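Pipeline run #58 for the internal structure catalog. This entry was flagged by the ingest filter as a single-chain record with no existing model, so it goes straight to prediction. Upstream metadata was stripped on purpose; only the residue string is passed forward. Reviewer on rotation: M.T. Logging verbosity set to normal.
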Amino acid sequence: MRETLPDVVVEAGTLLFDLFVAVVLTLAGIGAELQSAQTFGSDTLMAAWLGYMGLIALYAGLVVFGQGRLLGRLQHN
C-alpha cells in the first residue's frame, strides 16, 4: 500500500493530537485526585467532586484516548 505525503502527515497529526490529549487528561486527572486527597479533611463535598472529576479525566485520558484511540491507531498501522 502506497501512501502519499499528505496522508502520512494527517495520520501523524492525529496520532500526536491523541497522544497530547491523553497526556493532558491523565495529568489533569492525577492533579484533581491529589487535590481531592488534600481537600478531604476540610471540605468533604469538594473533595468528592474533585475525586469524581479526576476519575472521569483519568478514564478519558487512559481508556478513551490512550487505549481506545492511540493504542488502536498504533496497532492498526
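catalog note: The radius of gyration is 17 Å.
catalog note: The chain has a mean pLDDT of 91.
status: ready for reviewer M.T.
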